[in-house]
Amino acid sequence: MPLVLSDASTLIHLAAIGRLALLRDLYQEITIPSAVWQEVVEEGRGRAGTAEVEAARQAGWVKLLAPDHGPLLQLLKRDLDEGESEVIALAIERQADLILLDETDARQVAERYGLPKTGVIGVLIRARREGRIASLEAELDRLRSDGGFWIAEGLYQRALQAVGER
User: Fold this and answer.
1) For 23-40, how does the pLDDT look when each residue is reduced to its tens digit (9 = 90+)?
2) Which pTM value belongs to this model?
3) Cβ neighbours of residue 130 under 8 Å, at least 6 residues apart?
4) Axis-axis angle for helices 120-129, 136-145 (nearest 10)
5) Which positions ≥6 away from 157 have C-beta within 8 Å?
6) Alpha helices (runs of H) in 66-135, residue ranges in sequence order
7) Which residues make beta-bridge pairs with 63?
8) What are phi and psi of 76, to 5 degrees?
């Protein structure tokens, strides 16, 4: 089974639009480091993603894995938050097949390490291409309104073009 690691943002935003299960449908299993669990579930009580991620862990398709707390993790923490640092450190340590990141700084660091990555928009594009959602535009609009996710207009248009909705 491929190792797919996720940061908090992807989990929170997909949960906010009722689409967290797409991760199970697309990847079968998602692994998150302890810092992401803490951010989403322990510190996030009452917010989008908390109950959904807890339920996914109980169902067995969200797994927890701690990175080594060595020099790489300490270096990453200088520029990124705890969750993003742990995701990238784990991806390097375990040679992850894919990481799910949305923040620009984290995506740039992942790129420097040659890590395969996508984010919530990439997940939705894949889901649309595979027929798991009917309309990317509707999901992106919900992501903006219900999820509070900022999407640049150019990216919004390119995403819709990628699936033939523009």
Assistant:
1) 999 999 999 999 999 999
2) 0.94
3) 26
4) 150
5) 166
6) 71-77, 82-94, 104-112, 120-129
7) 31
8) -60, -35
